[in-house]
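User: Hello! My lab partner asked me to get a predicted holo structure for this protein. The small molecule is magnesium ion, SMILES included with the sequence. Please write out the structure tokens.
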Amino acid sequence: MSHTAPALETRQLVYAVDGKVILKGIDLRVDYGEVLGIMGASGSGKTTLLKCLCGLLKPTSGEVWVEGVNIAPLSERERMPLRLRLGIVFQYAALFDYLTVYQNVAFGLERHRRLSKAQIREIVRERLAWVGLEGVENLYPSQLSGGMRKRVGLARALAMDPHIVLFDEPSSGLDPVNAYQVDRLITRLNRELNLTAVVVSHDVVSLMRTCSRIVMIDDGQIIAEGTPAAIRASEHPKVQAFLQMASAEAL
Amino acid sequence: MWLDEESPRRSHPLYATLEFVGALGVLLVASLRGVLGGRIEGRETVHQMAFIGAASAPIVALTSAFTGAVVTLYSASLLVDAGGSGFVGGALALAMTRELAPILTGIMVTARCGSAIAAQLGTMKITEQIDALRALAVSPVQYLVIPRVLAALIMFPMLGMIANFAGLVGGFVIANAFGIGANSFLQSIRLLTEPFDVIGGLIKTLVFALIITLVSAQQGLSTRGGAAGVGHATTRAVVISMVLIFAANYFLADLLFAER
Ligand SMILES: Nc1ncnc2c1ncn2[C@@H]1O[C@H](COP(=O)(O)OP(=O)(O)OP(=O)(O)O)[C@@H](O)[C@H]1O
Ligand SMILES: [Mg+2]
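Assistant: Hello! Below are the structure tokens for the protein in complex with magnesium ion.
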């Protein structure tokens, strides 16, 4: 694998279900060390794209390359070990509701890492502190607010120290202070640990703040791509409409 | 495999049936491979043994006792007048060990646990907890399905024995009311049944254990939609399990007992 191989790449990625084509030939490239933003209207296929990227969904056609391996033709069993290279933060947290916050965050560590109980406890405490949560280790997900759950999901994905993380709307549903903290966390992990991140969000302001490159998806297709400045300057009517609505919202 | 592919929502019944059988087969193979691979979730298995086995014991015992009682009610009122009171215990024992104990165990555990397994896994599916497991490189089959299958395989024969015992006790109480004493009751059991009646019945329970856990897990893991989807999955898990249990029971009876 040459050092120019991208962290993630899709080629003509198509995903269809129930005879409905959701992703219509996506060509996407994510380089190591970059923070790629994906924006797009509700229902445009952002979550579906993330799930194809981490191998949770099998593409109908096309290729998905994860660190130089095309995972599209692999079976679930073959894909399983590759998943540890990626972390994913689910849009609705997807916490294990029968486990405590502590057990949720420690889940992957206990199964895949040879660590002592004390080491695991330390990592869990630290990851929870990263997302601004303290003293909730023994609560169950049902005892948390939506925003807290979201942040536990974030901590769970980060516990395994993946070097690529897919964030599905990491800050939606958070109050502005916590949303800002999450943005800062992503930026910090990118700078300090060279984390490669794909961030899906509706929040244009936050994307502009955190991402080095932004892709806009509409109806399962990429309609614009570039640096935040280039996106802002884009003349594509749908991009313009999206930006205008977003800035109107910000007021 | 069906974990990373959504199945088409409205497909032809024939296609849907084939798909169901296929999924069941895949799950069976994956479970066997997981068990033989030796990576077993000990804690979860013990937990499921408590849920499927220990917690089902009272209800299995209760229903079996009443069934044993009602069978004896009929047989005794017929046989005692005809001078056949010596057959009452044996007839009941035959019916219990070969048929009633396995079937009652199957039905009661389907109602209690098949529905619970489908609802649990179905809820985990629609709330993306199954996806979260897979994302953390944990196989849902290994982590969720195998412990349930194993627990059922271990506990079902015990439940079957409990059902046998409870049925005979229930029957004996009624037989006693008809003037049949303990000696004559036991004598008749010894005369008419042999060990294989018990063993064959327990073999049936093993097959039922596989049916219930695999069908319920398959239904749960292929749940789609919201709360209604979980409801559907639960209902289907129970209905399909019951039908398959009765069908399998016929063929097993033919296989195990027809020659005797
Ligand atoms: N399992 C499924 N079955 C049928 N349709 C689906 C399924 N999953 C997604 N879709 C459809 O695919 C489209 C894209 O869904 P997706 O969840 O990827 O959107 P999204 O961009 O993440 O939206 P949001 O911003 O609201 O989260 C939607 O129109 C949705 O109806
Ligand atoms: Mg989404």
